[in-house]
Amino acid sequence: MHVGVTIKKNASLLPVTEDQLQHSVYEMLSVLEILCNSAHGHGQADTSGGVIDFLGEPEQIKLLEESSMWKYIHSMYLFAELGEPLDVIDYHLSDMLGDLAKWITAANPILEYDETSLNQAAIKIIYKFIARLKLNYRWDFDGNYSPKDNPDPLPHSDARNGLVPLSAGWYPDTHKRHLTLVELALLAGMSNIRSVRNAQFSKTDPLSFIKDGAQVLITVEEARRWLQRRNGFVPTKGIEY
Fold this sequence. Notes:
Helix content is 46%, strand content 4%. The chain has helices spanning 18-39, 58-65, 68-80, 93-113, 121-137, 156-161, 164-167, 181-188, 194-198, 220-227, and strands at residues 179-180, 210-212, 215-218. The termini are far apart.
């Protein structure tokens, strides 16, 4: 099992629909319920009884929408996938990302034990959310950001202190300041990182990379320039790139 929350290497990085996100979050809620019940002596800590499929039934929707997991991830979805203005003022981002990492990390071993892959939709949204924060606000996750891009919608403690779950390495497919290949592919609406890697060889619009140790990265300024010419990129409303 991988340490931290990662996107599976063969997972499609194409945009996530709200229906796909509902299925993903409901799956995790179901698995966490199995885990909780087994800890209290009710049933086994596996999915032998079957993870309940999300069928869009009223009671399922009610359970989903009342959960903290859905409230966190859906607000991220609106910003990350649809380009809506950032609206997480009621939450501390460090708490959101920390709680999500704990829940996902708890659910993953049960599914891996049963040789079932965790639905990747929610994880993709989290990473795309992180990527868009950097892209829009030039935010450094150590707590630094450009004065001209002061992210007013962000809770001040998050802006001042940075995002602890990222600094702690709970999301290893990201970087504190620059964009990773995975993050840029998500923002560009591409299916995998191969297209991003190949962009460096373009004769008309080559993409420049930098390195930080073993990580291949793209600066925010370079990403802003390159993404504006990608059909799959959805700009955030009110942000000038």
